[in-house]
Amino acid sequence: MGDLYILNTRCQLTDKIRETFEKAGFKVKVSTDCGVSDENLKGAKGFTAICIFVNKCIKPEQVEILKENGNKLILHCSAGFDNSPTEELKAAGISAARVPSYSPGSIAEYAVTQIMALAKNTHMSYVMTKKADFEITNMQCLLLENKTCGVIGTGLIGKKCAMKISGLVEKVLCFDVYPDNEWIKTIPNASYADMDTVLRNSDFISIHVPLLPQTHHLINEEAFAKMKKDVVLVNTSRGEIVHIPSLIKALEAKKLWGVALDVFEGEKKYIFHDKSKAGFRDDPDLARLAQFEHVILSSHIAFYTDQAVDQITAKTIENYMGFVGKGTKDEKAFIC
Length: 336
Fold this sequence. Notes:
alpha/beta, five-stranded parallel β-sheet, 12 helices
């Protein structure tokens, strides 16, 4: 019998969580396999909880394995929990908890960084000068101080992004289905607007919405058609928000100045893995996307800072302690 079975995240988070749980006197095992195969899940037999991160996905048909294992809790090391089957877990009597928020500033900073990188052609200059190419013909940049930045979604991360970018641009336009009219007053050059206004008037757009049925492929062909020419688009929320074929079409039409995707549809088999030998041969859309010079793809690392790892770990062990009766249970963190 044991306390925590960690599906190896392939990042510092695994070591931090293991060390923290063991220091508290709990028995921990880290999976040797990084996938979520049936065999890997069977390795959790006898453990109270299974810990998973966003690069893992437990399928509905695998819940039966968890029942046979005697597992009682799924600990999500993320705010999102769409990578485990909530209804099936609930029916099986298995609880699930998440980390509602962690270092929103980390993700917001990353979004602003990517806006700056694309606007200033930093990524292009880095590649060229490594080859002793200092030509500047195609290196003209964008000035930020006379531009408008659109922020879609003003939860904790969106708010941080709006605050951080506000000092760099002339205007910030925000959209949220539940606008925070008191908070917006704290940023002198920011205001709420409807989605159409944000899309049509923004020079930079940063996406910070959760993945819901109504946000799935929110940024589609219709949305791209409304955007200004030479817009910069950044997505650090969920990959499925942006419809990749529509994005490719917009890039081919030279509608966008640049795109930064820290998340993208179909990312789970790529993020935290070295796929350089196989490349994108099984994903023609991603292969095409990667060919564009002004597209930056990254491996879901916007969250990955020292503070975020500490906060995720602290909340994860708090959730476990609350579940086993050794601490106060935060009901808001429990999904089922």
